[in-house]
# Entry
Amino acid sequence: MNILRRPSPFLLVAALLAALLTACFASGPQKALDSLAEALNKNDSAAFLAQLDLKTFAANQIKNLTREDQALSSLDSLGRMLGLGGMDDLLGSVLNMENRLQSQYTRGVSTGEMMAQCREAQTPDCPWVPESLKQAQVTELSDTAAVAKVTTPAKMTSWLALRKKGDRWLVVGQAILESTAKAYATDVSAPPVSGAPAAKPDAGNKGDKNANPGGGADKPADGGAMNI
# Structure
């Protein structure tokens, strides 16, 4: 005779706790990283950009380029290498970083170029690989700040800074160093935008294949070139 057994109360409680933990995890900073990964897999640039606080991200990219431990004299040669012109043209491009990043990510995500290059990049400034974002090691610094350690298939590690805005977690910066990412995640000051001069037209750089599609890093290796 078959005896119908009622589900164990312990199993029901365990299932409920698992569901609650899953819901909490899905609503945390990892959710933003998973959404980035999904957008990359679908070549959906709009969904990708929706996971970034692009204004703050751009301001932090400017900080990456102008950190005190980087020689500004290297900017002139960097600008010429990337096809951006000399010092004056490059500074104009930095001040217009938000528009440049939006254009760069729109093109790189929709074509799949950014994901492909980041998968093989040999520099720690290109974290945009779907499986790497899904497997990122997330550390919550507070209820509204977190950092994520992202390691690509090429064994290159970099950090993303995330901040909670309302009920959503958004990526607000990227960095090579954990300490830099933590600073970006916890800094709630507004990006410096007032008084910035207008950027020069950048039409000549649309097809520049030498520009790094990953968005750049905060500090180059000693003696190496900076990327943006």
In short: The beta strands are 137-140, 145-151, 157-165, 168-175.
